[in-house]
Every structure is written in C-alpha cells, then in structure tokens.
Amino acid sequence: MPESQPSEEVTGWAELFRLEDYWAIWLALLVLLVGTVFFLSRPPAGMREQFAEANRIMADEADRAPFRTVTWYEAGNTKSGIKASSALRAKRLAGFIRKPHGWKNNPLESLMLSEAGAERKNTAAQPRYNELLTEVTVARQRAVSAETTAAMTGFGDEALNAAAVAAIDEWRALATEASSAKKKTTISSHNQIVNLIGLAIALGIFFGIGTIALGRSFRKFLVGFLFVFGIAILAYIAAEQATMKAYGIGYAAWAILFGLLISNTVGTPEWVKPAVQTEYFIKTGLVLLGAEILFGKILAIGVPGIFVSWIVTPIVLVSTYIFGQKVIKIPSKTLNITISADMSVCGVSAAIATAAACRAKKEELTLAVGMSLVFTAVMMIAMPAFIKAVGIPEILGGAWMGGTIDATGAVAAAGAFLGERALYVAATIKMIQNVLIGVIAFFVALYWTARVDRQEGERVSIWEIWHRFPKFVIGFIGASILFSAIYAALGPDAGYTLIDQGVIGGLTKTLRGWFFCLAFVSIGLATNFRELKEYFKGGKPLILYVCGQSFNLILTLSMAYLMFYVVFTKITAAI
Beta partners for 190? Predict the structure, then answer.
C-alpha cells in the first residue's frame, strides 16, 4: 500500500486537514450528514399514525396470548414495511449508487436488461411464486387454527401452545420464502452503465478532495481511480453471479483476485498507482460502518450477547497471539497480531485497524485479509449445514456464527440459512463484536509502544501511543455514538424506518460496500506474490489461523450455550 501520510511532518491543528485518517472521517461524516438531511427531512406520510395503530394491536395481542400470534406478526410486518428508502426520490438515489444487478448465465444482464428480457425472467419466476402464495395461505390457516385451539383452553395447555408456535413459525418461514420469490417476479429493465460512469466520476471527485489536501496530484489520482473503479465493477459483477452468491464468494474475494492477476502478470501500470489507496478507501468505509453499530440494538439482546462478544473475543485474540509467538514461533509479531485480530474480532475491518496500530507491512495485511476471505466463504456454507445436521437450536446456532464468522455480510447470510431468529441473533452479536475494533486498536497501539517497539531505558510516551493510534477509529466511535443518539431520539419504530431503512439502508451501506471494494482492488494491485512468499514459510500463518479459529469455535459455542441456555434463559425465550 502507498504511504498513508504526507512526507513532511504534520503537527498541531494542521493534522486535522493534512492526515489521511482525518480526511477519512471528514468524508464519511459528509456522507452521513447528507444522508441524514435527505431522509429525516421528509419521513413517509402517516408514519406515526401507522406505528401507533400497529403498536396498539401488538400490545393487545401480547396481553391476550403467552406467545406471538399471527395478528401480532402481521402488525409487526406493517411497521417493518414502512421504509424511507421506498420513496421515489430515495429509489432514484439508490439507482444511482447501486452495485451491478444479479445474473445467472449472461454477465451483460448485470449492467443492461431489456424490457423483453425482464418480462421473460418475471414470467419464468411467476409459477413458483404462485405456488408459494398458496402454501403461505394454507400455512396461515393452519397457524390460525392451532392458535384458536390453544386459545380455547385459555392458553393453559403447553402442548397446544407449542403446536401453535410451531405452526406460526412454519407460516412465517414460508412467507419469507415467498417474499424472496416475489422479487424475482418484479424485475425491471435497466441500463446501469450511465449511472456507473456518473458514480465513478462522483466518487473520484469525492476522494479527490482529500487527495489535494494530502499533497497528491488530483489529476493523476482521478485517472487512476477510474481504472480502479472499473475493476471494482468487474468484482461486483462476478460476485452477483447466481452460483457465486450461493457459495458466498463475494466481491471482496473477486476484487483482490482481479487486482492480484494484474499486479502479478502485466504489473500494475504506473499511472494507476496514485489511486491505489487501500487505507484511504477502507478507513472512510469503516467510519460509515460505525453509524451502523447502534447501542440500542446491542442492549436489546442483553447481557448474553455481550458475554459472547466481549469476553470470548479478547481471550481468543490474546491466546492466539501467545500461541503464535511461543508455540509456532512466527517471526513477525505484526503479522501474528494482525492475523489474530482478523480471525478473532471481525475480519478485514479489525485487521486494517490493528495493522495500522502496530504498523504491519502491507504484505502482512494482505495475507491476513486473504485467509480471512477464504475461511469466511467456507464457514458461511459449512456452519449452517453442520448446525442443522446435528440439531443445534436456532438461537444458539446464530450466536455461534455471529461470534466466529468474520464478515458481517457473511454472518447475516449464514444466519438467514437457519431462520429469522438466528439471523437476528447472529447479526446483533457481530454488531456488538464490531464495537471492539476501536478498543483492540487502542490496546495494540499501547502494547506495541510500551513493549514491542520500546527501546531499553526508553520511557513510554503518551504522544507515541497517540501517534500510533489509528485516528479514523475516533470517527468510527463518534459515528456510532451520534447515530445511536439519533436513533434513541427517534424511537425504535421511526429509527428503523428513517435510519435502518433510510440513511443506512438507502445510502451509507451501499457506499460503504463500494469503498471496501475499492480497497480490496487496491490490495490486489499493490501486492506481488514474490513479496508474500517469505511469509508462507512452514505454513505458520495458516496453522495460526486454523488453530486460533478452532479455539474460537469451541469457546464461542460453550459461552453461547452457557449464556443463552443456562444463565439468561428468559432473554432467550423472548427472542
């Protein structure tokens, strides 16, 4: 990776506008400000009234039955269907920034699809959707019948209550499947090429603002950026292929692969290198990620999730680092801690923050990220299959995956394989775990300053710790605090509509994906296999990752079982 800081010494207030970390914060905050104004200034019409009516129904149903009834869930569906991102102007914005579309046999359909082609797809998908609609109707009738039977005993028969809950769960699972099938019947024609060209120019200028302040050539950056963005588009197209999506091979893997193919064959062109700014792109994306970590959601799952995320993770990280140093004897401490953080905390995001704190080499970061992506793809498929095969309870399975699978997107996809409750638990635990990114970065900077890089007789300097500490983490934490406060002020219903399904769902999450994809392309373009070869000697990094992840799997499953099924059973029952 190119140097992340300007060559001259920057001190005092000048740091705020001459250091890359701060520009990542300013750019991300600009996106968050625009998104907040855009979505919060015009909430959906009648939003509050619809919330009030749905909440009244849900409260009545909660008083009537000891479990969530069909009517309760339907009222909840009404609330969740109110989305700021559904407004026409929000759809136009989403259309401009969206990634390429999904495809199966023809990659050109990812960018262009005619009306006739869209009609063929819709027609082909309609029979399955009609079949599912019938199944949903029948399942709902069974659920209502089972619920009515339980009500006739005053909900005093536990067997009848359990039968009603099972029937309702079956109905909801089919309804979710039908909802997914419906999307395949409403495909519209599109021409994404013009939008992608406009987005490339817009993002080039967006990042170019900071480039000028950092003392780099705006013209050279913009020219190279268009090439990097083009590779990012190809990565998204490859990831959107139906089979690749099914196997969890996402844009990150393709972005790195395409970059590596170029850098290790023809070589990365000199005119592209000014735009190969891995840290610049990903740090900006990480600040946006902070806005997605909402304290209210963390508290909603309670103490069990905090134990699984905040107790297990540091134990695994420290144990893996010690194992790497004392047992495997990995020569590079920076490689050791980067892999340990990548594997134990939350994958790429933690690796970037940790590598910055300990000043790891770019080759070490690339190696850690590469292994993370491979194991994430495997675990995303293998863990849900194993959980179902051995009959692990859905909530326990979700907690296990949330604490061990590295990438947030992969966690959500794996959770969805098990069910709605597993998805909720897995995603929330991963969100809680993401909070540790800043904490880990601080303690790594502290440890490296006080122990690893400290010369004999040298005093520990608080300024050296501050100098090492990745400043973008301040933006990450600040965005989390700010949006948690906004969410709390709006309330859970309006917060979901305007933040989850507005600022985040309608803008920042998509842009964060683009920023990460640009970073992964940059990693590939800046990496040469010859430089990585020395780090693979003896297979020590792979041994470290496998042993650390094995320990992580065992400890996380044990803690999740203890917390959710022994200590805090009431919280588990309420999920």
Answer: 113
